[in-house]
Amino acid sequence: LDRLPDEIVRIASSYMKLPVRIEIAPAGTTAQKVSQELFFVGKDSKLSLLEKLLSEYNGSVLVFTRTKHAAKKIAAVVRAAGYSSCELHSNRSLTQRRDALEGFKAGRYRVMVATDIAARGIDVVGIELVVNFDLPQMAEDYVHRIGRTGRAGLSGHAISFATPDQRGSVREIERLIRSVLPQSKVPSELLARRTPTTSTSSSLRRFSRYPHRPQGVNTAHIPHSSHHTSSAKRPHASTSFGRRHVPRRSASSRFHPDQYQGSGDGSSRHRPNR
C-alpha cells in the first residue's frame, strides 16, 4: 500500500477532531493472528481426522464443507461422536438458521457444520478452530472462511483437508494469500485400512502422539513457527495432536465414519447448491 503523504496527514489533523485512518488490506490478505495448517488426506480418512482434531481442541469449532448434503451428514456423525453440533446451509429455514447461529454463539452447540453461506458476514467471537473439511470451490472463499476465527483481537487456527488430487487447488490458494500453507502429516494410525468390525473411535483412542505424558494433564501448545524450511520444500507445521488432553469417551460415543463417503473431489466445474 502507498503511504499517505505527511502533508495530507497534517491537513486532516488540523481540520478534524480525532481523525480515524482506515487502511484496506489487499485481496487475499489473511488475519495476522490466524495460524494455518494443511493435511493431505484421503476421503475415507477425513472423518477420523476431524474427530481427532475435535478431541484436541476445547473451544468452539466451525467446519466448512462444500455441499449442504455433506454438511447434514457430517453434523449427524459429529453428534453421534458425542459433540453438540448444528448445521447451517440453504436447506435450513430462516428460523432454523437463526436458532443454529444463536445457539453456536451462546455455546449450546460446540460445533457448527456449514457451507459457504457462513463464510461471509457472520461475526461470532471466540471461534477457536476453523476446519475446511472440503476445500472451497473458489480460492477467494478460503480467506473468508478462515476469517471467522481470530476475530476481536483473539488468535485462532485454521486447518484444511485436501485430497491428493487437489494440489492444484492448494496452489491457487497459496498464490492468492502469497504464502505456502504449512503441511502436517496425518498419523499412520488414522490412515490404516479398517475392517468392517473395527471402530474408528477405538483406533483413535489407541493413538497417542505423546505416550509418555500422564493421563489428565494438558499438554502445552506447540508453536507452528518452530520449523525450518528450504526454498524447495513445503514447510511442515507442528500438528495439533497432543495439544490438549481430553478424557477418554465411553464406548457409547463411537461412530462409524463409513456412513459418510466424501463430499466432493474438486472435479466439478460448477459451484454446488448451498
Q: In what order do the strands lie side by side in the largest sheet?
A: 3-4-2-5-6-1-7
Low-confidence stretches: 193-232, 244-257, 259-270
The shape is globular
Let me know the largest β-sheet.
Answer: 7 strands, parallel
Quick check: average pLDDT?
75
User: What is the distance, rounded to the nearest whole angstrom, between the alpha carbons of the first and last residues?
Assistant: 36 Å
| Strand-residue proportion | 5-15%
CATH class of the domain at 33-203: Alpha Beta
**Rounded radius of gyration (Å):** 20 Å
Q: Any guess at the CATH architecture of the domain at 33-203? A: 3-Layer(aba) Sandwich
Write down how many β-strands occur, each being a DSSP E stretch of 2 or more residues: 7
Share of helical residues: 25-40%
Structural class: alpha/beta
How many DSSP H or I helices?
A: 8
The CATH H-level superfamily of the domain at 33-203 is P-loop containing nucleotide triphosphate hydrolases
CATH topology of the domain at 33-203: Rossmann fold
Element-level helix/strand string: HEHEHEHEEHEHEHH
